[in-house]
């Protein structure tokens, strides 16, 4: 919702507020609430149904992330992704949004629930996606943020616009690393758009070209969940809105909304909390992380190349400035007050060289930061691969012994039985 | 260590490498290793004594944070502070450093150790510290990062240059919120500079003016620690380097190095892991967080004021551009090819208006981001205060009952005894 740019912005916020008030969800995770006034409007509308709320602020415009809850919010924390597009791609706007993942810690019937809401960098062209390394790094940071901050949770929920298809690298990494389960594949009942798609071709607010070659639409919004230690969770039902809204000429949003019902069951003593070192790692994970490393390296090479180009442009600006100096010095050295070079061109050239220097300096800073960030992600991924390989090796060494033990049991049982 | 700017940079890295190799610490947490080549030099020097290492990359130059360990590094994670000075204060350089807190997860004798290394924004003038709100927000983010990511740890260690005195607001908040203990006040034996100071007046690399009014020096570097669940920790000894190095004409660094010995004891079944909701909150914490809110509000007002100034400057640039347009249109409207206005001044004015617009646009983005960040921190602090007050209220209501129970025990004991 961007005022003046998005169509029927205020009317749609009114519709959304009304819907949320009626449906009375326990927890609402919203993305792209860009304007604080719209957040405040929703806050007012939902004051009785959802007394607890948080709006995550970040970036130039904001993170756009908002949470409304029937249950008390105990704590919040925001992690801003370290890479998020380019400021000069202003028409894409992602850079200005300050993309991030927000965490709220809730107390729901004495269970500690860590709910995450996020919105990753958009995909504008699937064939030639310049932002793929950025999105892979964002997914990588997202999964680590969830892993490291969900230690004390009984239930973890992630809701958001991941801008990734279900089989995309980032989605696979996220699910494999965190153990989160996809409510669409897990739901016992599903009602809504075919194949759970959330970006449908008929939506009047989207650019149909960006959907190609997916004629019907794509599934890029998710509700993911997992229970830890004391809780087992299953997804009873999942639904999406289906485009048109009865009695209204337009839908709520450019994406379809996802709603799910999770059934929680206390499991005293039971624990599916993953053990950091002892559990067998997924052998496919090594390939996945290596695939991510390749993507990050592609991004790194491109950022380094751009930094090089910018540095050369900066040199040109500097050379121009030198030429200016020489031109300025010639009449002075020749003790003449006459300018050999036309004044206007002289000033234009000066302005040009200054503008070039300033612009290249800024771009150099931008690309240097991106190079550092991508290098950092690559380092972390290399460490992860080494760790995974060692654990797999250790596991394959201990595996025969454990298998022997398991196989030995049936024969030893009769001996122990009376 | 900044090459060409810092004196004796390479020699000092050699000295530091030699010292670390000889002293064989389990864990080394370094700050301000700005150049990757210096990190690689240390990595090579310490390859045998400290085979596990990580260098955190962030910002334009880097985070400067490096870890060397005798024990395996299982995982790493970096959190960049959301506010960190101003890019135009290039001589202070903090903005370019990409200040952050790095976490490494180590396996030390089957204990999970979360070690944090950080370097907060420097204080250049204590009397009129424009960066105080930035440092308070950094301390706030640091303490939340530690709280939220140390869930699975047996031992938590934070080492770094906090750029805060022991009684500064940020230090008090950090200790009170995380339960971390200061190795200087806890150490059974201490050897080194008086009062544990780490920035001493005699250091040849520092600007003595910045130390005023603290004649001898200040303590701004810390080793903080706490044991969780299975482990009790005490600090056996702490030491600092004391300026001069025998046989060398200059010290290792502008700060004195801190070394501590921690004694870990397994506590089976014992647990001093803080319970999120049931433990009594420190009543002083509310005042502390309110004090922090005041600082953040001061920063917010200043950022908003600067954003307003910048917006007005931008308007002036726009007005200039309009004047230019009018000047350009006058001869065209008068059907004359002659310029009534001197050409050179016309171009200069044009360049000036463009430069003003570009610069103000950039500054507007910077201040908008800072406003959002400071508002976000203030929101989080307000939530924290409300939560603390509710817990205190609840505790004061349940307190008499609990006291009654405790008081009742001695009288009931004789009845139960045979």
Automatic annotation (TrEMBL), chains A, B:
Keywords: Hydrolase, Lipid metabolism, Magnesium, Membrane, Metal-binding, Sphingolipid metabolism, Transmembrane, Transmembrane helix. The keyword Lipid metabolism applies. GO terms for molecular function: metal ion binding; sphingomyelin phosphodiesterase activity. Its EC number is 3.1.4.12. Pfam families: Exo_endo_phos (PF03372). It is a multi-pass membrane protein. Pathway: Lipid metabolism; sphingolipid metabolism; Sphingolipid metabolism. Residues 394-418 are annotated as: Disordered. Its main location: membrane. Residues 409-418 have a biased composition (Polar residues). GO terms for biological process: sphingolipid metabolic process. Residues 12-255 form the Endonuclease/exonuclease/phosphatase domain. GO terms for cellular component: membrane. It is an enzyme of class 3 (hydrolase). It is found in: Membrane. The chain crosses the membrane at residues 315-334, 346-367. Belongs to the neutral sphingomyelinase family. This is sphingomyelin phosphodiesterase. The lineage of its organism: Eukaryota, Metazoa, Chordata, Craniata, Vertebrata.
């Amino acid at each position: 919702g961007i005022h003046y740019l998005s169509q029927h912005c205020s009317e749609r916020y009114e519709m959304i507020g009304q819907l949320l008030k009626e449906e009375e969800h326990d927890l609402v995770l919203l993305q792209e609430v860009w304007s604080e006034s719209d957040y405040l409007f929703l806050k007012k509308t939902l004051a009785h149904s959802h007394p607890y709320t948080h709006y995550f602020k970040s970036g130039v415009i904001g993170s756009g992330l908002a949470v409304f809850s029937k249950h008390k919010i105990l704590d919040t924390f925001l992690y801003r992704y370290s890479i998020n597009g380019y400021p000069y791609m202003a028409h894409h706007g992602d850079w200005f949004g300050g993309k991030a993942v927000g965490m709220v810690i809730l107390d729901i019937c004495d269970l500690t629930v860590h709910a995450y809401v996020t919105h990753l960098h958009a995909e504008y062209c699937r064939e030639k996606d310049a932002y793929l390394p950025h999105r892979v790094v964002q997914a990588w940071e997202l999964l680590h943020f969830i892993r490291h901050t969900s230690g004390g949770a009984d239930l973890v929920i992630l809701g958001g616009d991941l801008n990734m298809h279900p089989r995309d690298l980032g989605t696979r990494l996220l699910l494999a690393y965190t153990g989160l389960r996809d409510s669409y594949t897990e739901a016992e009942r599903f009602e809504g758009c075919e194949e759970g798609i959330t970006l449908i071709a008929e939506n009047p607010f989207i650019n149909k070209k960006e959907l190609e070659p997916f004629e019907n639409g794509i599934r890029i919004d998710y509700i993911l969940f997992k229970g830890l230690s004391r809780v087992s969770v299953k997804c009873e039902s999942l639904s999406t809105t289906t485009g048109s809204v009865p009695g209204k000429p337009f839908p709520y949003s450019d994406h379809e909304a996802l709603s799910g019902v999770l059934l929680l069951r206390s499991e005293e003593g039971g624990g599916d909390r993953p053990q950091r070192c002892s559990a067998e790692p997924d052998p496919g994970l090594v390939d996945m992380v290596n695939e991510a490393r390749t993507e990050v390296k592609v991004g790194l090479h491109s950022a380094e190349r751009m930094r090089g180009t910018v540095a050369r442009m900066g040199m040109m600006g500097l050379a121009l400035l030198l030429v200016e100096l020489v031109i300025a010095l010639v009449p002075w050295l020749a003790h003449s007050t006459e300018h050999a070079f036309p004044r206007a061109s002289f000033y234009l050239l000066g302005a040009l060289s200054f503008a070039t220097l300033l612009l290249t300096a800024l771009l150099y800073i931008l690309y240097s930061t991106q190079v550092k960030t991508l290098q950092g992600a690559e380092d972390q991924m290399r460490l992860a691969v080494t760790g995974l390989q060692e654990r797999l090796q250790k596991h394959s060494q201990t595996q025969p012994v454990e298998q022997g033990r398991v196989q030995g049991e049936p024969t030893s049982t009769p001996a122990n039985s009376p």
